[in-house]
Amino acid sequence: MAKIPTAVVAAAGLVGGYGVARWSGRREFGGGVLAVAGGVAAVQWQRQAGTAAAVGLTGLYVAAFGGSHPLAKRIGAWPAVFAVAGVVAAASMVATKR
User: Fold this and answer.
1) Nearest to 38 by CA among 56, 14, 69
2) Domain ranges of the chain
3) Can you list the pairs that 79-87 forms with residues at least 24 positions away whose Cβ atoms lie under 8 Å?
4) CA dihedral 53, 55, 57, 58 (to 10 degrees)
5) What's the rounded Cα separation, in Å, for the pair 6 and 33?
6) Which pTM does this prediction carry?
7) What's the confidence (pLDDT) of residue 97?
8) What is the pLDDT of residues 42-95, one digit of tens each?
9) What confidence score (pLDDT) does residue 3 get?
10) Which contacts of 70-79 are long-range, i.e. CB under 8 A and separated by 24 or more positions?
């Protein structure tokens, strides 16, 4: 099975978590998607880039989730989610050199 790049896992967690919450009307379902993808990404980050990078990227992932809320008030929900997902994906690519 082909390995999914960690940047994709993290971005998909942010986008998918929001999408699931919005379309299901259940925030906890979206939170579950966000948490599972974040956990998978954190394990991959630790394996690929070490513990310090994994802690930093996991912190960025959580901050991106939180930061998407006030950003959504300025630019809209979906653009905010895509923007923060892009930032996390880019940081992941730099940290894991992919």
Assistant:
1) 14
2) 7-96
3) 81/14, 81/15, 81/18, 82/15, 84/14, 85/10, 85/11, 85/14, 85/15, 86/11, 87/60
4) 160
5) 15
6) 0.93
7) 87
8) 999 999 999 999 999 999 999 999 999 999 999 999 999 999 999 999 999 999
9) 87
10) 77/18, 77/22, 78/18
Q: How is residue 8 written in tokens?
A: 């994709």
Identify the CA nearest to 38 among candidates 70, 74, 63.
63
Q: Which tokens go with 72?
A: 């959504």
C-beta separation of 83 from 72 below 8 A: no
Q: Which two three-digit tokens encode residue 89?
A: 């994906």
HSE of 95 in the Cβ direction (CA atoms, 13 Å)? 28
Q: Fill in the amino acid letter for 81.
A: V
